[in-house]
């Protein structure tokens, strides 16, 4: 884009990373126009450092509602060199490593979108050394880390939060099923404990695991931060990885079919959207399973058997 002195001068700082690499990732961008600033953050599972760096820059540029003169600061040489040295060649080679053949370059989808943004704005790409005392670079680094940690599995039970241990059981698939919840508050070994359980006549194990989560959340005030402790990969991955995509697709799979247990997923998502902080912990990552999880399993199994015999 040709120089245009009438354009607004916007300063952007971006950062992104994954831990491990690839693994859980987070990104952040700080946009500054005069005295005004805007912060953008996001995260994703199963991504690389480089993809998070590109996502931060792309999202920041896409957030500008009109063409601007942009000075974009990044500590990613991959991003800065990709834009200033390699982008034209990649485009000429149809985004492949070798002209007309070979593998598609990594992150080609993001590079193509970034190329569109370079045509919309006048951009000066500035590399800055990371962790070298640049205030704004340090800030986006911290924001990106915080975003990543939002979805990173944590391997310790937090004694300062109510602990909701949840389990489901089903006698058949479908069949009579039960759910169990053990709620602990206070000290890990000497706090208050309460138990809850229930059943459904014709259900699945996944639904009972998820029903346990919903019933658990209903035992605490909606404004209180809680931690959900589960051994169900369906529950944990759904809550930390899949739910954002489901919500964007109006609770449908990529093929257009409705997701299973949409009513419960929407209800649980609504609690988070309403401001309740929910910390998800996959108990499989703990050195040993907490006894309360076995108690919740027994509650669920007993409820399912009672449902079957009724």
Please provide a written account of the structure:
The chain has 310 residues and is of the alpha/beta class. 38% of the residues lie in helices and 30% in strands. It has eight helices and twelve strands. The strands form three sheets. A five-stranded mixed β-sheet has the order 3-2-1-4-7, with helices on both faces. Strand 1 and strand 2 (23-33) form a beta hairpin. Helix 1 packs parallel to helix 3, helix 2 crosses helix 3 (108-120) and helix 5 (205-217) runs parallel beside helix 7. It is elongated.
Mean pLDDT: 91
Uncertain residue ranges: none
What is the terminal-to-terminal distance?
A: 74 Å
Structural class: alpha/beta
H/E order of the elements? EEEHEHEEHEHEEEHEHHEH
Morphology: elongated
- Sheet-strand content, in percent, reads 25-35%
Profile the largest sheet: 5 strands, mixed
The main sheet orders its strands as 3-2-1-4-7
The count of strands amounts to 12
Q: Share of helix among residues?
A: 25-40%
Alpha carbon gyration radius: 24 Å
Tally of individual helices: 8
Short description:
With 310 residues, the protein is of the alpha/beta class. The chain has helices at residues 49-62, 77-92, 108-120, 135-149, 205-217, 233-248, 262-273, 291-309, and strands at 9-19, 23-33, 36-47, 69-74, 96-98, 101-104, 122-127, 163-170, 175-185, 192-203, 226-230, 278-282.
